[in-house]
Design a protein that fits this description.
This protein is α+β, with helices and mostly antiparallel strands. Helices cover 20% and strands 32% of the residues. It has helices at residues 38-46, 73-81, 156-163, 177-187, 218-227; strands at residues 5-8, 12-17, 51-52, 61-67, 86-94, 100-104, 107-108, 115-116, 119-130, 140-149, 194-202, 209-213.
């Protein structure tokens, strides 16, 4: 597997993480033997060890930032804690979503007993109605949405879209099983349709303003062609 590298300098490497790849294996992980993590794949491809600044869910694809040395991690993590970095995601959701909506709803943190404030800006880019029945309706409706999280909680975008009754297609935990099956059967698409597309920030060392973007996965491109959608 050759990973898409969109930017690198002496401090960082920015790559596109595929669907269903963990960033790194947790200690005692059951998957250590049978699959490679993003960090392992990158070490094989680039011949060096890298250190993640942030995380993406296993099932989420898209842009991720890593440093070349551990001593650089804290400076880049500060961009996230200070809300000095803009993260832009795209999602395919069930139904016709609102044109624009701020979703302000607490989300459980990694400590499942504690809810933390979470905010996401949703903007609808395209809508479509398909002549494909999904119970209990004779047709099915979907929206391509742009998601800009203002906070970075665990599963925030997946929870927030479900909260407004527009769950992401392909989400096995927060999604709609009937619509997920429809995409598998009609489009051969099984992955979660949540993609981290862009990162914008001022480089803490070079002071250069960077706007970095990765390509959409193949299943997204397939649907864009079928639905006549462009971004």
């Amino acid at each position: 597997m050759s990973l898409e590298i969109v930017y690198q300098d002496e401090y960082i490497v920015c790559v596109s993480k595929p669907n269903n790849v963990v960033v790194h294996h947790a200690r005692h992980s059951r998957n250590v033997v049978d699959e490679k993590s993003l960090l392992q794949l990158l070490e094989e491809q680039l011949g060096e060890k890298l250190y993640p600044v942030h995380r993406l869910d296993r099932k989420t694809s898209g842009i991720i930032l890593l440093t070349r040395e551990t001593k650089f991690v804290s400076e880049f993590q500060k961009l996230f804690t200070d809300n000095a970095i803009t993260k832009t995601y795209y999602g395919l959701v069930r139904g016709h979503a609102p044109e624009k909506l701020v979703i302000d709803s607490p989300v459980k943190g990694r400590d499942a007993n504690v809810h933390k404030d979470a905010e996401t800006l949703l903007e609808t880019i395209h809508k479509i109605t398909l002549d494909i029945p999904v119970k209990p309706y004779d047709t099915s409706r979907y929206s391509l949405v742009k998601l800009t999280p203002k906070t970075g909680r665990l599963h925030q975008l997946r929870i927030h879209t479900n909260k407004i009754s527009h769950p992401l297609i392909g989400d096995p935990k927060y999604g709609d099983k009937n619509h997920n099956i429809m995409y598998q059967e009609n489009f051969n698409c099984e992955n979660l349709f949540l993609h981290a597309k862009n990162l914008e920030f001022v480089h803490p060392f070079s002071k250069e303003k960077l706007s970095l973007s990765v390509s959409f996965p193949k299943d997204w491109e397939l649907l864009f062609e079928k639905f006549h959608w462009t971004i």
